[in-house]
Amino acid sequence: MRRFRIAVIAIIAAAAGSLFLPGQASATPYPETWLPDSGLHTYCFTAGFSSSIDPGTGTYAMSILDSTTDMTISNLGACSASTTDVWWWSLDLAGTIRGQAECIVFSGSVCDSADVRIDFAQIDIGDNDIADRDKTSVHEIGHTIGLGHHSPAAHNCAMISGEIPSLDIIWRRYDAHDISHINAQF
Asked: Where is the signal peptide (predicted)?
């Protein structure tokens, strides 16, 4: 019986060790979604987003893109079909969807204009609501610049799906690998 307990303890310890050892990150292709029309990424807040419970999360996401990549970000103030790259919306999305990004105007193979839709009520069901709103907003903007969903095994960053696993800032930022792709493009 004692050998059995020791064997079980050894198996549990080995399994627990493998859970806590960092895995090697895997490379992700680029672009995984679509590319924007240029390195200038203009945006506006629709009336619904401006009057939402947290329009600052859109500003936060755009500032992360501006401060961590070579892209140039510009808040247009008013939305214009001819000049806006990203339209921010606060909407009640279907089911458990927390946010979505969709290219609404393609010009050849690049996206001239995209919608970013945030469902604050769905995000606020979990824990850490403010940080999770920021993560979701950074995540959705990531789609508008060519990034897809990542598993934590690939990169620990905002491009994971779902709720943030902790308050660590890495969940509200892009991975260095993704930033290098973006900077090489723009």
From this structure: 1-27
